[in-house]
Amino acid sequence: MESYRRLILNLELIGIIFIVFLGSMLHFTFELSGRNPLVGIFPAVNESVWEHLKLAFWPAMLYAFIEYRYLKKIVSNFLFL
Predict the structure, then answer these.
(1) pLDDT one-digit tens code per residue, 56-75
(2) What total of structural domains would you count in the chain?
(3) In a domain, 76, yes or no
Protein backbone atom coordinates (compact mmCIF):
# COMPACT_ATOMS: atom_id res chain seq x y z
CA MET A 1 0.00 0.00 0.00
CA GLU A 2 2.80 2.40 0.86
CA SER A 3 4.54 1.68 -2.43
CA TYR A 4 1.32 2.58 -4.29
CA ARG A 5 1.10 5.88 -2.42
CA ARG A 6 4.70 6.65 -3.28
CA LEU A 7 4.06 5.78 -6.94
CA ILE A 8 1.01 8.03 -7.08
CA LEU A 9 2.88 10.87 -5.36
CA ASN A 10 5.78 10.54 -7.79
CA LEU A 11 3.46 10.48 -10.80
CA GLU A 12 1.66 13.59 -9.54
CA LEU A 13 4.93 15.47 -8.99
CA ILE A 14 6.15 14.47 -12.43
CA GLY A 15 2.78 15.59 -13.80
CA ILE A 16 3.14 19.06 -12.30
CA ILE A 17 6.52 19.49 -13.95
CA PHE A 18 5.22 18.06 -17.24
CA ILE A 19 2.18 20.36 -17.33
CA VAL A 20 4.15 23.50 -16.44
CA PHE A 21 6.89 22.74 -18.97
CA LEU A 22 4.61 21.75 -21.85
CA GLY A 23 2.20 24.61 -21.10
CA SER A 24 5.08 27.07 -21.21
CA MET A 25 6.21 25.63 -24.53
CA LEU A 26 2.68 25.89 -25.94
CA HIS A 27 2.59 29.60 -25.13
CA PHE A 28 4.91 30.31 -28.07
CA THR A 29 3.87 27.53 -30.45
CA PHE A 30 1.21 29.49 -32.34
CA GLU A 31 3.59 32.30 -33.28
CA LEU A 32 6.36 29.85 -34.17
CA SER A 33 3.98 27.95 -36.47
CA GLY A 34 3.39 31.05 -38.56
CA ARG A 35 -0.08 31.52 -37.02
CA ASN A 36 -1.33 28.22 -38.48
CA PRO A 37 -5.07 27.86 -37.64
CA LEU A 38 -4.81 24.09 -37.11
CA VAL A 39 -2.03 24.60 -34.58
CA GLY A 40 -4.18 27.26 -32.87
CA ILE A 41 -6.45 24.57 -31.40
CA PHE A 42 -3.92 23.74 -28.69
CA PRO A 43 -1.80 26.80 -27.78
CA ALA A 44 -2.90 30.30 -26.82
CA VAL A 45 -3.59 32.47 -29.87
CA ASN A 46 -4.16 35.69 -27.93
CA GLU A 47 -3.89 36.96 -24.36
CA SER A 48 -7.42 36.10 -23.17
CA VAL A 49 -8.08 34.05 -20.05
CA TRP A 50 -9.64 31.22 -22.07
CA GLU A 51 -6.61 30.95 -24.30
CA HIS A 52 -4.31 30.77 -21.30
CA LEU A 53 -6.47 28.07 -19.73
CA LYS A 54 -5.76 25.95 -22.82
CA LEU A 55 -2.08 26.06 -21.83
CA ALA A 56 -2.91 23.97 -18.77
CA PHE A 57 -5.84 21.96 -20.12
CA TRP A 58 -4.16 20.20 -23.06
CA PRO A 59 -0.97 19.20 -21.23
CA ALA A 60 -3.07 18.00 -18.26
CA MET A 61 -5.30 15.97 -20.58
CA LEU A 62 -2.28 14.41 -22.25
CA TYR A 63 -0.68 13.59 -18.92
CA ALA A 64 -3.93 12.09 -17.61
CA PHE A 65 -3.90 9.61 -20.50
CA ILE A 66 -0.27 8.75 -19.79
CA GLU A 67 -0.88 8.46 -16.05
CA TYR A 68 -3.98 6.33 -16.51
CA ARG A 69 -1.91 3.72 -18.28
CA TYR A 70 0.15 3.22 -15.11
CA LEU A 71 -2.64 3.58 -12.55
CA LYS A 72 -5.62 1.78 -14.08
CA LYS A 73 -4.90 -1.44 -12.19
CA ILE A 74 -4.03 0.29 -8.92
CA VAL A 75 -6.71 2.97 -8.58
CA SER A 76 -10.34 2.03 -9.09
CA ASN A 77 -11.70 5.59 -9.37
CA PHE A 78 -9.23 7.31 -11.72
CA LEU A 79 -11.96 8.44 -14.09
CA PHE A 80 -15.34 9.68 -12.94
CA LEU A 81 -17.87 8.19 -15.34
Answers:
(1) 999 999 999 999 988 888 88
(2) 1
(3) no
**Domain range enclosing 39:** 2-71
Q: In this structure, is residue 7 part of a structural domain?
A: yes
The SS3 call for residue 4 is helix
Which tens digit of pLDDT belongs to each residue from 15-48?
999 999 999 999 999 999 999 999 999 999 999 9
Q: Which of 6, 2, 8 is nearest to 73 (CA)?
A: 8
- What is the distance between the alpha carbons of residues 35 and 29, in angstroms, rounded to a whole number? 9
DSSP 10-73: HHHHHHHHHHHHHHHHHTTHHHHTTS-TTGGGSS-SSSSHHHHHHHHHHHHHHHHHHHHHHHTT
